[in-house]
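Just wondering, does anyone understand these tokens?
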Amino acid sequence: MTRKEFKKKWGNISPDAMTDKQFVEFKEDCFSMYEEVGFTTRFNSPYDDYLWHNGMTFKVLRRATTNECDLEALPIWLVEFENGDTAYCYPEEICKAEQKCPYCESKNLEIAEDGLYHCKDCDRLFNDEDITREDLRHKISCLLNGTSEEKPAEIFFNLPSAEEEAQGLSSLEIPAIEKIFEMEGEGTMWYHISGEREDNGEDTWHDIDELPIKDMKGLLLFLRENS
């Protein structure tokens, strides 16, 4: 079922006004519509429960049933992540039809060539990895700006402990990151590796977008614990 067909069939009736039979049919059509539009290539959840899985690839195993979830909560799918973990996921976490533009928050999107999204409001192209990165940048920015009364914000920190590493709470691959810096108004964020200097003796700074997604998640988790 296409989005247009779904809207034509159900657009003028509230779920609260449906009969039990209609509600079951409505939920079945929700499944069909989302599956017709397709699933994202990477998991992106707005909820904290699966933050560490954001940016991971996944495969959809099957639809969830009413033996596993309440009918009201459907549609939900059981998925398996690239690391072998499984989870029940909502449309906003894995369905293309529910994605938002990471730059202007609009849902007025179309699927462009090569699987890219095109935002009709800000006229930008992006992919699923861009959604993950922008979400992490936003969360890190909020924590950075909470550490200082003045902007731009800067924070010094120690790395997660060996125990935290063993628990899978972080997978930082750059063990000497010492500072993070955000430039107000420019939308840029930088990190400094301890001991790195320019020829003039000043600190060397790297764009945070150069970090692997898993390291950005490690930074976010550490900042949440220590800010």
